[in-house]
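Pipeline run #58 for the internal structure catalog. This entry was flagged by the ingest filter as a single-chain record with no existing model, so it goes straight to prediction. Upstream metadata was stripped on purpose; only the residue string is passed forward. Reviewer on rotation: M.T. Logging verbosity set to normal.
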Amino acid sequence: MTEHVQPLESLSRPCRILVVDDHQTFRRFVLSLLSKHPSVEIVGDVQDGVEAVQQSEMLQPDVVLLDIGLPRMNGIEAARQITRLVPGARIVFLTQECSRDVVQAALGLGAWGYVLKTQAGSELLMALETVRQGERFVSSGIAHSSPDQP
């Protein structure tokens, strides 16, 4: 699935990313993976949906990497609120959820990307670069039966 729109305002500066996942070990893996790349600036990492909304509003990231199964507020609801509060932020779900209904709900609310955790090592950086350039990204492990994007 590829839909091209305006890239983030400046591709010359690092992409500011907030990482949201309740599993500390996986969050550390993602932070380690991202920290090695000069085109990425990690502005924060949190472990639940409520913190994701609060930190997104405060930090104004370019991209929010968001799990779906989060405590206190699930990732779908957090994404709705983040999109409303920080309209410039691009949501990329990074999750183990791969059911068709969940994928459709996530993409239907305007997410820019959907990456399966099992494919994060090989696809996360590609997903971020794709999203940064104004295109949507869906993990190769997801059946391409998602709804049309706005």
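catalog note: The domain at 15-138 is CATH 3.40.50.2300 (Rossmann fold).
catalog note: Residues 120-132 form the longest helix (13 residues).
status: ready for reviewer M.T.
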